[in-house]
Every structure is written in structure tokens, then in C-alpha cells.
Amino acid sequence: MYETEPVARPGRKLTWPWFLAVVVAYVAVLKLAGLLVGVDTSGSDSQFPTTAAVIRNGLLPIGLSVVFAAAVVTWLGWWGEVMRYRVPVRRWVWFVPVSMLAVALLGVNYPNLAAQKASLVLALAAMAACVGIAEELMFRGIGVQVFRRAGFSEGKVALYSSVIFGLVHVSNAFGEGSQALVQAAVVSTSGYFFYLCLRAGGTLLLPMAVHGLWDFGLISNSVGQDPKLSAGMVLPILLQVVLIVLLLIRHRSIDPATRPTPASTVPPM
């Protein structure tokens, strides 16, 4: 993949060890906010049984993480580079965001949402949007820029930012046990797909939208007092497998082919 060189760029400098410290602070803000405002739902079969649970266990803590991530980008002075990422890819890479958006829409548990109060559905939509904004700002925004400014190749930029994205979700082990380790591995691959969304669209807005809708579809199966899983829940799993296989086959053809310089344009020695 493309090699990048560490060059002088606008804004403050953030090395990758300090980025890890920022990520730890990001997780701490999220977890601490959850402890302070969250409500106990251990007696329910649902992750978010009520509107209050969605707001206090999800929307408020994640909304605060949006503020934290935006404050870091503002302090760094990186908004221009974070929001625009002009590294070309081949056209087939568009299959990643298009397929993820389609599957996210098809996988929403519409019957379960229809049985809920409008306030719960709206709170869920706001929460999912905040997840997309916060996590993309932190990992495909700040993280990608940190590794790119350090001069890593695009392959390593994608790998390192995605692995850190996955490891952050290990923090869920405090509430979900060993399942969080599986989740971290799955999330790492999802992080790579979101990176490809960034490359395909050239703007952070695309992975934000894909990520938010993706999470909305998944969480729609676990809201309400008596949630019922839908058959559409299997679609994200199937697509995840398809995309992994596709990228194993075509990972060397993500970047456009480089054309040799015509002899007539080569300066004389």
C-alpha cells in the first residue's frame, strides 16, 4: 500500500504513545460517566429496557465522549485533515460501505422497534449516531492521522488504528466477561472496514454514517422490556465473513495501479 513520509503538517504534534494515552483518557471518560449517571438493568433481559436506560446508560456517556474527541481534535488543530482523507482506492472498495449500509438497513429489527415508545427509538437513534461520531473521530480521525504523520504505510495505518479500536472494546469485559475478547477481534475487523469507508469516500462523514447505522441495526435487537431477535440479525455476521474473505483475496489491489513514467517526461541525466 501507499507509503507516507513524516512531513511538516499544520497543528500540534501527537506521537502514537501519546495517542494511546488519549485513548485511555477517552475510555475513562466514557466509563466514569456511565458509573455516575447509569442505571442498573441487571434484572432485565434487555440491554436497554426503557428510554431512561438508553439515555443514561448510552446517550449521555457516549455524548460526553463525542465532546472529548472533538475537544482533542480542536486542541490539535487537525479538523481539516481529520474530516478529509484524500488517499485514492480502486472502485471495488466502494462495495464495503455500500454493502454495510444496505445490510445495516435490512438488519434493523423493525418489529421490535415498532413495539417501543417513540422516545426510546429516538434516543436509540441519537445514541447510535453519537457512537459513530465519537469512535470515528477518535480512531479513523485522530488515530489514522497519528500513524500517517509518523510515516507509516497505509497498510500499517489501517492495521494499528483498527487493532487499537478493537482493544478498547476489551474494556467491556468488566460487564460482559470473555465475550468481550471475541467482540474485540470482531471490532478490529470492523475497524478496518470503516477505514476502507474513509478511503472510499474521502471524508470521515461516510464511516461515521456507516458506523452509526450499523450499530443502530445491531442494538435494535436488544431494546425494550421483552426484546425479540429478528432473522435480520444474522446478516451483519454473514457480511462480516464475506468482507473478510474478499479482503484476504483482494487486499493487494486496494490501491490504484501505479503507472510508469513515460520516457519523454523523464528529465535527462
Core attributes:
mainly alpha, 269 residues, 11 helices, 0% strand, disordered C terminus
What does this structure look like?
- This protein has one domain (16-255).
- With 269 residues, the protein is an all-alpha fold.
- Helix 1 runs antiparallel to helix 2 (51-76), helix 2 runs parallel beside helix 6 (118-149) and helix 7 runs antiparallel to helix 9 (179-201).
- 40% of the residues are buried.
- The chain has 11 helices and no strands.
- Topology, number of strands: 0
User: What's the number of structural domains?
Assistant: 1
SSE class: mainly alpha
Radius of gyration, CA atoms, in whole angstroms: 20 Å
Beta content comes to under 5%
What is the overall pLDDT average? 89
Multimeric state of these chains? single chain
| Share of helical residues | 55-70%
Q: What's the total helix number?
A: 11
Order of helices and strands: HHHHHHHHHHH
Give the overall silhouette: globular
Short description:
With 269 residues, the chain is mainly alpha-helical. The chain has helices at residues 16-37, 51-76, 79-83, 95-107, 110-114, 118-149, 154-168, 173-176, 179-201, 205-219, 234-250.
Topology, please?
Layout: H1 16-37, H2 51-76, H3 79-83, H4 95-107, H5 110-114, H6 118-149, H7 154-168, H8 173-176, H9 179-201, H10 205-219, H11 234-250
Helix pairs in contact: 1-2, 1-6, 2-6, 4-10, 4-11, 6-7, 6-9, 6-10, 7-9, 9-10
